[in-house]
Amino acid sequence: MDSIRMRGVCKNFGEITALENIDFDLGENEVVGLIGDNGAGKSTLIKIITGVYPFEKGELFIRDEKVDPLRYTVQKAREFGIETVYQERSLGERQPLWRNIFIGRHRTNRLGYIRIRSEKEETINILKNLIGLKGVGISADSSVQMLSGGERQGVAIGRAMYFKSRIIVLDEPTTALSLKEVDKVLNFIKMIRETGKSCIYITHNIYHLYAVADRFVILDRGKIVGNYQKSELSREELSDKLMMHARQE
Fold first, then answer.
1. DSSP labels for 139-205?
2. Model pTM?
3. CB atoms within 10 A of CB 111
4. Angle 87-43-184 from CA coordinates, rounded to 5°
């Protein structure tokens, strides 16, 4: 069973064609790298998958269930187990970690009050056992501001993994991070696969992508122009494929 299957999907903004006849698959327990130049259509494709945009033509299946584009929403995508981690603004800078983990999905008692102790205990479990964040002084009450960039992305990814997500979308998760921090994030991505989940990884960085992805999908001006298993080409060959399409503009 595929996690996601798109067939002939089209998306227009007025007279501008953003996506044209898109066939895209994401398998179970697979990391797919979605790559292409600015304006290639990556963000539009992801926003269709995550329920932000409807599509005008084609079919979309999430875990073999056909999606009605007129009724498919962000909330419905979340019910399917789709979570998105963006490049920035994934976390509340001034809020403690436990509030960031459970924001919008707090545990409450029968009177509607937040079960703070329970949420803090589970936050520690997520930090230490799910994403392996064991820095000295880090607690459920720690502010996001005290975390490094890689640790912040780790918390956002851990939150996505925790809430019964099956599909995690990462949008440029290593941008502006140091080499050490990049390694942390790439290890978090490997953990996504190891826990049996699927991932769409959007990035401009071929080096980071090649280290963790199982397959690469290249978008160019709203069309899929390449679909390669990692075993089919080297990192240098993948870079050459991207450059080839960039030169054709």
1. -TT-BGGGS-HHHHHHHHHHHHHHTT-SEEEEESTTTT--HHHHHHHHHHHHHHHHTT-EEEEE-S-
2. 0.85
3. 5
4. 30
Kindly state the tokens that stand for 168.
């995690």
Enumerate domains of the chain plus CATH numbers. Answer: 2-91+165-247 (3.40.50.300)
* Cα–Cα distance for residue pair 10/24, rounded to 1 Å: 12
SS3 state of residue 79 = helix
Taking each continuous run of H as one helix and of E as one strand, the counts in the chain are 8, 10
Spatial separation of the C-alpha atoms in residues 55 and 235, rounded to whole Å: 33
Give CA–CA dist 173/212, Å, rounded. 13
Please write the tens of the pLDDT for every residue from 149-158.
878 888 888 8
| Residue 53 CB contacts under 8 Å (≥ 6 apart), including other chains | 11, 44, 47
